[in-house]
Amino acid sequence: MEHISLPSDAASELETAVETDVAALSSASESACEPAQGTPADSLPASIPVPFAFLPERTRALLAKQGINAPTLIQEKAIPVALEGRDVLAQSHTGSGKTLAFGLSLGLRLNKAKRGGVLALVLTPTRELATQVTRVLEPILRTLDLSVLAVTGGDSYARQKSALNRGVDVVVGTPGRICDLLSQDVLTLENIQMFVLDEVDEMLDVGFADNLEEIRAKVGPDAQALFFSATLNPKIRKLARNLLNDPVEVVAKQAAEGEAGAARIEHGYIEVLPGGEFKALINAFLFHSPDQALVFCKTRAECAELVEALVARGLLAAALHGDLSQDERNATMGKFRDKRVRYLVATNVAARGIDVRDLPLVVNFGVPFDPESYTHRVGRTGRAGAEGKAWTLVSPKTARGYEFLMRHLKLTPTAVAVPAPADIARRIAEDTVKGLLGVPDESTGPKTVRKAVERALEDIPAEEKAALLASLLCRHVGQRESFFLNDVVPSRPVVRLGAAGSQGPSYGDRPQYGDRPQYGDRRPFNDRKPYGDKKPFGKPFGAKPAFGERKPYGDKPAFGEKPAFGEKKPFGGKAFGAKPAFGEKPAFAEKKPFLEKKTFVPSTVKPAAGKKPSFRRDEDWV
């Protein structure tokens, strides 16, 4: 596999080449357009220094109208290789112009003389991305006399079947719906000349590997394949070995930011307590008030909770997740693109393929699991050279994962402080007053409404008008409820990236909470005072007296000074041997009887016949 890497300053050199050589190449541009009209692509030069000069005049005019005057890094390297007929495995960050790279390659490579079915198939991981690609390619390929159709789930089968029966040159779809149409024999891939996979890494994450192999098996072996991805991992390379034929690997990275994407993206993080992400983001939105923002959540419940809180505070917000129908998702995206929705809160899967021009902010409600996910998410901002911001909410549990992402992607994020309620209220009041002062009288409302308000304020003194204005401002600011920082912000920083990984304030420079010492103020271990003033336990070692010098226990004599055996005191106080001799015992008769037994006297009363004799104790015993 050949490998092509691109230096970061190639775009400026190429733009200069376009300005200096456009006059010399203008005469050759018309003849160079012939491959798009059916001339075999083998007649094209092996290396094309300025790809846009080889497009038809109307195609270049359309691109210029869209503000595209020079190719991006990935377009400059991928288009010449694709026009040579080689399979391409291209890597470039999200928003770098990959769609236009394979779109222009399609327009120049397809041989319309062999029409008789679909000529090119473009696969995307999600419906939104398929719709976006179709929206980009349709006007450009129309200038090259090619038609495009989006085939995705959620749309009508009948409409898609009808369009395919009429004839379509390029089909853009998701693997699931393409497999359905293939199983129904509605779509045939026998005449496919070019096979394109967009966002391959996302497609593998969703689990479309089997579908891709099934579709590729039904595409002719001679079809040219183009794979485009924001990242290249071992799974993608394995898939490329199975589906591509000796591909050329094209890598176009931004040297300043590594794999994370555009150098114009400002990466930041917001430190929160566990469970404080919701409150911290509300405070940040109320204070900074971004024009638009895309928030990535993990679950649909998080989406619903955040949207409800934003709407309750007067902020235009909408959710985008899998529970919505395709029509509802399209309507929500249309409102977001038209800026009728200010904040779009979406799950990670539903937000893939979202492309909004000049999106200023992307927020990760939680730390992404891997660098690829972070790359795709933050790639929604800072597109086509525009500036953007990417915030990530980090808790103590997710701090280690965020530090790993930043070091792996070689990024330098900054800490974004969570504003306090007093600062939020002051900012909202100031912005409201400035907005009212900057609005001309003619645009404050219909004429009838303005006259009615003026008539209601005629008889009110100036002092009361000022009080009324203050009351209305207080009510407006009070509706933007914010949260106190005690339950939101941790008392100590949780992200430790060091000097190389963080440009924010160091831990020791931050204000402390309460009487806690700041990090770094502790004394070294050897300089600490001993614990308390306790005396050492027990007697010092070696201070015991010698064995013979010990005092006897109690009044006992010292060892070896025992009295003689006969000098012992008798046990019980009697002298030993004071017992009378054996023969001196008193006689047996002198002993007292043990008991004075009573004499038994039998009863004189005889029992009746058949009865046992009875005893009367008062008479029988005397």
What percent strand?
5-15%
Whole-number mean pLDDT: 75
Relative helix content: 25-40%
Describe the largest sheet: 8 strands, parallel
Please identify the structural class as seen in this structure.
Answer: alpha/beta
- In the predicted model, the low-confidence regions spanning at least 5 consecutive residues are 5-51, 255-262, 499-521
Q: Mind telling me the C-alpha Rg?
A: 46 Å
Number of helices in the DSSP assignment: 20
Q: Characterize the overall form.
A: extended
Explain this structure.
The chain is α/β, with parallel strands linked by helices. It is built from 20 helices and 15 strands.
Short descriptors:
622 residues; alpha/beta; 8-stranded parallel beta sheet; 20 helices; extended
Summarize the model shown.
With 622 residues, this protein is α/β, with parallel strands linked by helices. It has 20 helices and 15 strands. It is extended and about 150 Å long.
